[in-house]
Amino acid sequence: MTTTMTTTMTTRVRARARALGLGLALLLVAAPAARAEEALIAVAANFTAAARDIGAAFEAEGGHSVTFSFGSTGKLYAQIAHGAPFHAFLAADVARPEKAEAEGLAVSGSRFTYALGRLALYSPDPDRIGTDGAVALAADDVDRLAIANPVTAPYGAAALEVLAALDLTDALRARLVQGDTIMQTHQFVVTGNVPLGFVALAQIVGHTDGSRWLVPQDLYTPLRQDAVLLRAGADSVAARAFLDFLRGPVARDIITGYGYGLDDDGRG
Amino acid sequence: MATVVWLTLQLAAVVTVVLLVVSTPIAWWLARSKAPWKEVVGALVTLPLVLPPTVLGFYLLVAFSPSSPLGQAIEGVFGQGLPFTFEGLVVASVLHSLPFAVQPIRNAFEAIGDRPLEVAATLRASPWAAFWTVAVPLARPGFLAGAILGFAHTMGEFGVVLMIGGNIPGETKVLSIAIYDYVETLEWDKAHVLAAGMLGFSFTVLLAMRLVERRLGWGGQTR
Fold this sequence. Notes:
- The structure holds two protein chains of two kinds.
- By secondary structure, chain A is α/β, with parallel strands linked by helices.
- Chain A has two domains: 38-116 and 222-267, D-Maltodextrin-Binding Protein, domain 2; 119-214, D-Maltodextrin-Binding Protein, domain 2 (3-Layer(aba) Sandwich), CATH 3.40.190.
- Chain A is 46% helix and 19% strand.
- Chain A contains twelve helices and ten strands.
- Chain A has helices at residues 2-34, 48-61, 73-81, 95-102, 133-138, 154-165, 169-172, 182-190, 201-204, 237-247, 249-257, 264-267; strands at 38-44, 65-71, 88-90, 112-117, 119-123, 145-148, 176-179, 196-200, 211-214, 223-229.
- In chain A, strands 2-1-3-10-4 form a five-stranded mixed beta sheet, sandwiched between helices.
- In chain A, α2 links the parallel β1 (38-44) and β2 (65-71).
- Chain B has helices at residues 2-32, 38-50, 53-64, 69-78, 86-112, 115-122, 127-138, 140-155, 159-164, 175-184, 188-219.
- The N and C termini of chain B lie far apart (48 Å).
- Chain B: Residues 5-211 form the ABC transmembrane type-1 domain.
- Chain B: It is found in: Cell inner membrane; Cell membrane.
- Chain B: It is a multi-pass membrane protein.
């Protein structure tokens, strides 16, 4: 009886060893694909749609994969400052990537401008905004105006600059509704809960309905959007490859397709 | 910061009053009804306890939207929509905190049993009079627990407010949102002040409730 048991056990152990061997063999066969890495990128909310397109094109081209975390620039910066494992940071301003570099959170010398953002005033109502957005903003029936949280979102700060430039700050201060990100701000407007709001042009290039006003660029500080390689991604082949791809022609086409400008002057 | 605390206290106070008014008939019906489907209503009322606040926030945003029939009706009656207003937060918080008020009041009503009300009836008290002079005084611990829990829960409201509040100072920027903002912008000293205050408040509330419950519990043993 003892012998039978031992035999059975030996058989089992052998079967297990065989399964393990098979698994190892499979792993070896799969190894070339497993060498492909994953890049984890923190992306400012306004760049959500463009980043998804660029990510798809990037994955289609090379062996690496990319995962995005979207949020307001300020919020993402706070997460990075507290050890979030992001490999790279696509911000909506220059200040935060610069600060990350200065504080040793980013690889110095890796910072570059990937897009120039454009601010737009948008309303789902086709008749609300005419040729001059300032008129629409000053209208009496604007009971709410949506902007992104100006402290954490550069597009929200730009919206406040526009109001100040148009001398409408005092008139509209009490009516401001703040989205946590520019995505939520856009959602407030699109759902009709707020009649109009300052959003990123990239969010509404696809909309054919409603009315819009492309805010003249002399009314706000240019929304220069910088990307930077973070310390956690210093050794990541995938993150470096993605940043290179972001500078390449395919990504540039996608970026301009969403209404962003490119920093061609600075490129030389 | 004072504005934020004051606004949050106001919201919690208004919500608590509304909660007591709304919860009492619901709790009474749930405690006394023999209807076979009453637990369906009971489960509906308890839903906000287990639902993610984002689900409630999403539905409220859709329901209150000016493009929905309900949103249009509200705007027609009150002249303004509910999202991004103090009133909107009151409605949302009442829905979100409903189980916290209904459950203790219902338990208290159920604990009374039939006898005191039958005795009241034999003394020719109308059901209405019996309710006010017998049931409500006997259920006092339940009302107190419901009020305290509803108040405390509203003080800490976050998810729903984030979705339908719009972060408007003096109108919808409540304490939990302010803490969130301070943490996000790395203003930790301010976040610490509010967070510690909230911690102390919550502990005091729970301790006070236990003490009051014990005292009233003994007082209620006279039946």
